[in-house]
Amino acid sequence: MNESLEIILAEFAQLEASLADPALMADGAAYARVQRKYGEMRELARISRELLETRQRLSEALGLLSDADLGELAALDVLECEEKIPLLEAEFEDLTLPKDVADARDVILEIRAGTGGAEAGLFAADMLQMYQRYCEGLGFKLEVIDTNESDIGGFAKLTAEVRGTGAFAVFKFESGVHRVQRIPATESAGRIHTSTTTVAVLPEAEDVDVQINPAEIRVDVFRAGGHGGQGVNTTDSAVRVVYREGTADEIVVTCQDGRSQMKNREKAMTVLRSRLFERERERTMRERSEARSSLIGSGERSEKIRTYNYPQNRVTDHRLEGENKNYPLESVMQGGLNELSTALRALEKETLIAERLEKQMQKVVA
Predict the structure, then answer these.
(1) Confidence grade of residue 297 (pLDDT, cut at 50, 70, 90)
(2) 113 and 166 share a domain?
(3) Fewer CB within 10 Å, N- or C-terminus of the chain?
(4) Helix ranges, the chain (H)
(5) Which domain, by its residues, includes 234?
(6) 69 Ramachandran zone, left/alpha/beta (phi>0; psi -120 to 50)
(7) pLDDT mean across residues, the chain
């Protein structure tokens, strides 16, 4: 195992040296990739180094046990190292579990009103506020880049960008159908209605991740719509990008919340790249074991993942079990998603460990 630790440390040292290379620094995209990889490996390198040093220290202490002068101190050192090594090995195992390569990326967040008409649109607006508060608590920045508002203050759909270290790792479990049960403000008879919104969480793609042929897109510029007020654009700054129009692969992206046409075009292209990047990720994930998706959920938009029950003041996540699946609604809607997110990440870890053990058993049997 020491050999694998040394390989990790050598790779980390190479990344560290690369970050000081002027040629790499001149290439912004390449530098960002190396910097991200360096950040991802920092903790693994620290544990690897400490594990190597502790094993070496144990070996030296074992060699001194018979020494008349140092034997007693060596015995204490052996005891300390033998207690420490299993803990370090457990940390190393955790850090080397398969990781989603997109975990460290920023996020494109899409929320769409589903069944329930105007009430679904109002809940979409409530969810946006929930995520905004969640981001504030995490130190992330959420920026709305496109909206399609309903007449009574909700959203038929909206697109936002979430920026922050590990944003996708935090938000990826939000993908799917969110169901709300409550009495709508427009309901005079006091009846409980059930509505849904659909959330898609896409890892933000970079230029190098997806190559788009300019001949396959059409860019339209138009005047942004809205309900009036100072925030509405009065120039043709809104942008619509259509990818492979008229084919099964067609994707339409609009961006109109920025005042700059150039910025709106840039944001629209970012969303398009992210959707294409996510298509490829979904294809790859489908080829993997189904065990993970059966426990964590596939993240597909058609999958019901959570119910917000207002009469019972409860949020239930359907991927969790027992009391671990229920959370106080008021706290969640105020952005208190940390506990729920932690439970889902723990479930993901358990599933990955189970997959690893299953593969090891298959090798033994073979």
Answers:
(1) low
(2) yes
(3) C
(4) 2-18, 22-25, 28-63, 71-95, 118-138, 167-171, 261-286, 291-296, 329-333, 338-365
(5) 214-285
(6) alpha
(7) 88
